[in-house]
Predict the 3D structure of the following.
Amino acid sequence: MTDVARLAGVSHQTVSRVLNGHPNVREQTRNRVRAAISELGYRPNRAAKALVTGRSQVLGVVAQNSTLYGPASLLVAFEHAAAEAGFTVSVGNVSVLDRHSIGRAVEQHLDQRVAGIVVIAPVESANEALEHLPADVPLVTIDGDPSRPAALVTVDQAAGARDATKFLLDAGHSTVWHVSGPNDWFDSTGRVQGWRDALTAAGVEVPPVVPADWTAASGYRAGQMLARMPEVTAVFAANDHLALGILRAMSERGRRVPEDVSVVGFDDVPEAAYFIPPLTTIRPDFEAVARATLAMLLGQIESGTPTATRHTIAPELVVRDSVAPPAGR
Amino acid sequence: MTDVARLAGVSHQTVSRVLNGHPNVREQTRNRVRAAISELGYRPNRAAKALVTGRSQVLGVVAQNSTLYGPASLLVAFEHAAAEAGFTVSVGNVSVLDRHSIGRAVEQHLDQRVAGIVVIAPVESANEALEHLPADVPLVTIDGDPSRPAALVTVDQAAGARDATKFLLDAGHSTVWHVSGPNDWFDSTGRVQGWRDALTAAGVEVPPVVPADWTAASGYRAGQMLARMPEVTAVFAANDHLALGILRAMSERGRRVPEDVSVVGFDDVPEAAYFIPPLTTIRPDFEAVARATLAMLLGQIESGTPTATRHTIAPELVVRDSVAPPAGR
DNA sequence: CCGGCACATGTTATCGATCACATCGCGTTG
DNA sequence: CAACGCGATGTGATCGATAACATGTGCCGG
C-alpha cells in the first residue's frame, strides 16, 4: 500500500480512501491512485483489514449434510449470491445437528471473525443450540423452527404439501396417503400438516401417516406395504427419493403407476423427470431462498442489529406423468 | 492475549508459545497459561495471525457444479478432512471452467491469503487456466488432465470402466455398448478408454460410442435409440443418471432390464439401489480422494514447494440386479 | 570457582490495513 | 478583511498476533 502511495505521490491514507470509495477525494487524485494500483498489481491484504475492522468479508454456513440435493443446491445458490455481493463463503459441515456440534461449528466461524452466519437447521435438535448462541452476531436460519422468534427463511412446506394433495384429490382420488420424512424435521412436519389440512378441507378421511426417513430405501419399504393395500390409489411422498423407492415397490408388486396408483413427490431433483414414470412433484425455489437469506444477513450486518425478520418462499407444482384418475373411474 | 498474559503472570510471547505448542515452556507455566485462557474464554484472533504469518488457516476449493452428486460428496468429504486438520474450507463455485472464470476464482482465494487451493478441474478447458496460475502457491488438482505434470488426485476412470465392461462380457454378452459423457471431460474420455481396452483385450467388436452429456435426459435419448436395436444386449453408461434415462427408455419400449438388456452405471449415487431394477455400478471412493488431496496439499504447504506428485484411487464394482446373461442363452 | 551453554522467558519491531485527529488551502460571510 | 467552515490530504496510533533478538537462570565440565 505504501508503494502505491509513493507511486501516486500521495499518502497511504488517501490510497485507503480510494479503495473504500470514500467521497472526499479529488477526481484527479483518485485516478492517479487507481493507475498506480493497477500498474503495481496491488491487492489489499484482507487479513490486515479484518484485523483492524474486526470483521472479515466472509460468511459462514453451517449445514448438516450437503450431499443431499436440497442442501447442496442451497449452498451453491448462496455461495453464488454471496460472491456477487463481494463475500466469500466458508462451509462448516456437521454430521449431527445437536447442540454440541452446532455450537462448535459456530464457534469455529466466530474464530474466523466471519461477518455473519447462516445455519441450515431443519431439525428440532438444532433449536436448543440456537438458543444458546451469542446474540450479537448476524445470523439467519434456513428451514428452522417457524415458531421461534428469529431471522428465518423457509420454504412454505405446508403450502407445497396442500398443492400436492389437492392435485391428487382433484384427479378423483377418494383420499391420499402420505409417506413422511423423519418427524424431527420441520420440513417433514410442515408437509404432514399441509397434507392433513388439504384432506380435512376436502372433508375426506385422513389415513394414518406412513413414517419413513428421506432415503429411497425407506420409501421402498413403505411402498411394499402400501402396494399390498388395494384401497391405496394415491400417495404423496415427502420427497422425490422416497417416491423413487415407492415407484420401485409398486412396480415389483405389479401395481402400475399412474394407472393403479398415483404418486407425487417433493423437491424436484433433476432426475425426477426420468423416473419410471416421470414424477409429478413440488419444486422449492432454492435460488430464491438463497437470495432472501443473503439479503436478510446483509441487512443485519449493515444495521449492526440482529433482527427477527422472516421470509417464506412458496414452492411450485411440477406436473409430469405419475398422476392419473383412480382405476375405478 | 495481553489479558491472558497478565492473568497468568507471564508475557504475551509465552502465551503465544503455549498456543503454538512450542517445546521450550515449562510444564507448570504452560498449565497456568492454559488455565488463564479457559478462564477468560480467550480465543486467538486469526486475522492477526494471518497478517503476521502471511498465511491463513483456510483452504480454497474451486469447483464447477457442486450440485451434482460426485462433486458435492467430494466437497463434503474434503471439508471434513480439512476440519480435522484444523483448516476451514472456502468454496468458490464457478459456472464455467474456462480460463477466465478459474483465474478469477483463484485470484479471489489468493486475496484471502488461503494456505492452499484445490481445483476440481475435470475438463479440458480448465487446463489452460491452470497453466497460467502463479506457481508458488500450494495447489492440487482433482480429476484434472492425467498428462499434465502437476499435483493431481484422480479416480482411475479407465480401471472402473474396464471392470464394468468385463463384468458384462463375463456375463456372456457378445459386446458392450457405451453411452459416454461429454468428451471434454477427462472422466468421460477415461471411461471410454477403459471400455475400449476391455473390449479389444477380449477380442470383441467395438461398437460406436453413443455420445451424451451427464444428464438423465440425454441418457433417455440415447436409450431410445439403443432400445430400437435388437442386437444391443449390454450397455455401460458413463454415469448413474445416464443409466436412469436408459432404464426408462428401455422400459417404455418394452425391453426388460436385465432380461433383455443389461445396464451398468458409474458413481453409485445413493438412489442407484432403488432404480428399477437396482443398478449395478462403479463406486469411486470420494473419501479417499478427499483424504489424498488434503494430504498432498498439506505436504506442499509444509515443505513450501509445490510438488508434482500424483495419486490414483481405484474404484470398486457394486453388483446389483441390472445385469444378466443375454436372452439367447 | 568460573566460563559457557542450554533452557525458560521477556522486549521490541513488524505485518498492512483503518481510525482519529491534525493540517492546509480556499471560498464564503458578516 | 478576518474569521470560519469545509473539502482534500497527511500523520501517528492501533488492531493482535509472531519473529527476532535479548536477558536471566541453573547446571556442567575443566
Q: What stands out?
A: Residues 2-44 of chain B form a domain with the 434 Repressor (Amino-terminal Domain) fold (CATH 1.10.260.40). Residues 1-2, 12-13, 16, 19-20, 44-53 of chain B lie near DNA strand D (CB under 10 Å from a C1'). Chain B has a mean pLDDT of 92. Chain B touches chain A through 50 residues (CB under 8 Å).
